[in-house]
Amino acid sequence: MPVVLSDVFGDPNVGIFSFANEKIAVLPAGISPKKLSSYSEALETDICSIGIADSRLVGIYVTGNSNSLLLPYVATVEEISKLRSTGARIAVIQEKRTALGNLILCNDYGAVIDPRLKPKTVSAIEKALKVPVQTATIGGLPQVGSLAVASNKGVLANPIIDEKEKQHIQEVLKVPVSVGTVNSGVPYPKSGIVVNSRGAVVGSHTLGSELLAVSTVFQTD
């Protein structure tokens, strides 16, 4: 399982600009073919280059697992259509909080979500992802999607997570939870990692010790 150091438009916050599950990696429009190819090779997925809500911040808006990609209602008809044309199943979430990537932490086994999301939103997430959904916090904060990153092999979380929160997330997502930073000490793993069970793309400022933590929790050989 390869770990590739990279950036997007010269920015090491690769997780803010991109998203991947087991089937597809979604990157912002304007990415070079060479960069798209490097993501595809690292993650062993199809690639789609697109904006979301006319924004390059794909990883902020998009989340999901192998069963569905979740998009906010502000995504345009053209964007939704282009993603569907890849064969990906799309669920548009009607929720005023549109930064779904910051609010939802999920894999193919479960999902933990921001406790502030409406019951109707929770039901829609559960139906689309086809996994159990529970609320959670990390360090008492509700933005679980921005404070951790998950694959079908593990979770890397902000060091502020407490033991009770860690155990809860492990039980729901059914994978081990570890702590770490990216990009030379940034405590928001989601911002600097795009990962699935086959590979990871990590921000170019990430240190060797941080890469070791990534390799350990996501079982990259």
Question: Can you put this structure into words, describing what you see?
Answer:
The protein has 221 residues and is an alpha/beta fold. The protein has a single domain, classed as 5-stranded Propeller (L-arginine/glycine Amidinotransferase, Chain A), CATH 3.75.10.10. Helix content is 32%, strand content 23%. The protein has helices at residues 14-17, 33-43, 58-61, 77-84, 100-103, 119-129, 144-147, 163-173, 189-192, 208-217, and strands at residues 3-6, 19-20, 24-27, 46-49, 63-65, 68-72, 90-93, 104-106, 111-113, 133-135, 148-150, 155-157, 177-179, 193-195, 200-203. The strands form five sheets. The chain has a three-stranded mixed beta sheet. Strands 2-3-4 form a three-stranded mixed beta sheet. Strands 5-6-7 form a three-stranded mixed beta sheet, with helices on both faces. It starts with a strand and ends with a helix. 49% of the residues are buried.
- Evaluate the radius of gyration: 16 Å
Helix and strand sequence: EHEEHEHEEHEHEEHEHEEHEHEEH
Q: Which blocks of ≥5 consecutive residues have pLDDT under 50?
A: none
CATH class: Alpha Beta
CATH level-3 fold name: L-arginine/glycine Amidinotransferase, Chain A
The multimeric state of the shown protein is single chain
Structural class: alpha/beta
Q: What is the count of structural domains?
A: 1
Largest sheet: 3 strands, mixed
Q: How are the strands of the biggest sheet laid out side by side?
A: 1-15-14
Fraction of residues in H or I helices: 25-40%
Q: Kindly estimate the percentage of residues that lie in beta strands according to DSSP.
A: 15-25%
What value does the average pLDDT take?
Answer: 96
Within CATH, the superfamily carries the name L-arginine/glycine Amidinotransferase, Chain A
Distance between the termini: 6 Å
Number of strands: 15
Please state the overall shape, judged from the principal axes of the Cα atoms: globular
Architecture (CATH level 2) name? 5-stranded Propeller
How many helical stretches? 10
